[in-house]
Design brief:
Elements: H1 6-11, E1 17-19, E2 28-30, E3 36-41, E4 45-50, E5 56-61, H2 66-79, E6 88-91, E7 95-99, H3 106-112, H4 118-133, E8 146-149, E9 152-155, H5 169-184, H6 191-204, H7 211-224
Antiparallel strand pairs: 1-2, 3-4, 4-5, 5-7, 6-7, 8-9
Helix pairs in contact: 5-7, 6-7
């Protein structure tokens, strides 16, 4: 694969502007780029794929998120080659050029009723151990940052791995998987419900009730719709 042809593809994204949104909501995208499609939207960046160079994922950061871009490039440089993470081929002042990783995110799996095997959960644990081993801190690991590839997990978005502290997002997800996943395994969960849980989670996280209490509210909602 020629890793230099991404530069010409990247120039085609000049007509796209990515803007941050308040309250931890996804970024807004303005403009068009011929031959590109948006394949992912987060709170700091949007990811595009080009018809002419589909092996790349172009992660365009919102204006004012330069520090996140630099942090993520630095983390990828430290990770090097790992089966649990993508690779970064290069960057400019507003985007990273990553290896495109095919597969549904765990969020997509819940929406579509795709089985998430225990192996994927174990893979995330292994990936976290590896990150700690190289002196970084695995955090911001959630449903949209993990993709399923042939029954195995691959982690996306490593920009927060240089931050200290534990945000407990993965611990909470893992616990929810172990205790509640069998209720919904193989059944599609509607988007509105997942989005509501996400909003509740951000709201709940700032208060002091236990995660078990939070999950009880969520599972009540799950049971109401059966």
């Amino acid at each position: 694969m020629n890793h230099h042809n991404w530069q010409s593809a990247a120039q085609s994204l000049a007509g796209i502007t990515v803007t941050a949104s308040p309250n931890n909501e996804p970024v807004a995208i303005l403009g068009v780029a011929e031959g590109f499609r948006c394949i992912g939207v987060g709170t700091d960046a949007a990811v595009f794929q080009s018809d002419s160079a589909p092996e790349y994922a172009f992660k365009v950061y919102a204006e004012g998120k330069q520090d996140k871009l630099e942090a993520e490039a630095e983390v990828y440089a430290q990770i090097g080659s790992s089966p649990y993470f993508s690779e970064c081929y290069g960057k400019d002042d507003r985007m990273l050029v990553l290896k495109f990783e095919a597969g549904p995110t765990l969020f997509d799996c819940l929406l579509q009723g795709i089985d998430v095997p225990e192996q994927a959960i174990e893979d995330v644990e292994e990936a976290r151990d590896y990150i700690r081993h190289i002196g970084l801190n695995p955090r911001d690991i959630h449903l949209k940052n993990i993709i399923l590839q042939n029954g195995r997990a691959k982690l996306l978005d490593v920009s927060e791995y240089i931050k200290p502290g534990n945000d407990f997002r993965w611990e909470h997800l893992k616990k929810a998987y172990e205790e509640y996943y069998q209720i919904i395994d193989g059944k599609p969960v509607p988007f509105w419900l997942l989005d509501t849980i996400r909003k509740w989670y951000h709201h709940w996280n700032r208060y002091s009730s236990s995660f078990d209490e939070f999950m009880r509210i969520v599972s009540k909602q799950m049971n109401y719709r059966k």
